[in-house]
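Researcher: We plan to redesign the surface later, but first we want a full-length starting point. Tokens attached.
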């Protein structure tokens, strides 16, 4: 389990960084969100390069997914992983649902 941030860099590509609580105490404070939605995706589903439609937190409840970046790297996330998704511009990322996947989506205010 980890906390990660996906963001668009100066190179217009998506990047991923880990956000350890020890270095980001603000994550231990109450966060404001617009709402909550549970999403289910079947294993094998693939989404080609796309930026996120909005800033959001995404929590994997069950299943595994892979996020592909423009540099060819692939990052795998599973149950308990939390992602702050902020790559709303640029080239974006790919998403592949390795197994049936359930996640909690928490959109952030604009």
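Model: Full-length starting sequence:
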């Amino acid at each position: 389990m980890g906390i990660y941030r996906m963001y668009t860099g100066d190179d217009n590509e998506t990047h991923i960084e880990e956000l350890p609580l020890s270095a980001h105490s603000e994550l231990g404070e109450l966060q404001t969100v617009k709402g909550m939605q549970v999403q289910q995706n079947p294993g094998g589903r693939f989404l080609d390069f796309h930026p996120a439609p909005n800033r959001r937190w995404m929590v994997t409840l069950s299943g595994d997914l892979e996020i592909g970046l423009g540099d060819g790297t692939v990052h795998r996330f599973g149950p308990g992983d939390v992602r702050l998704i902020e790559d709303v511009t640029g080239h974006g990322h790919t998403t592949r649902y390795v197994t049936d996947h359930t996640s909690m989506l928490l959109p952030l205010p604009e």
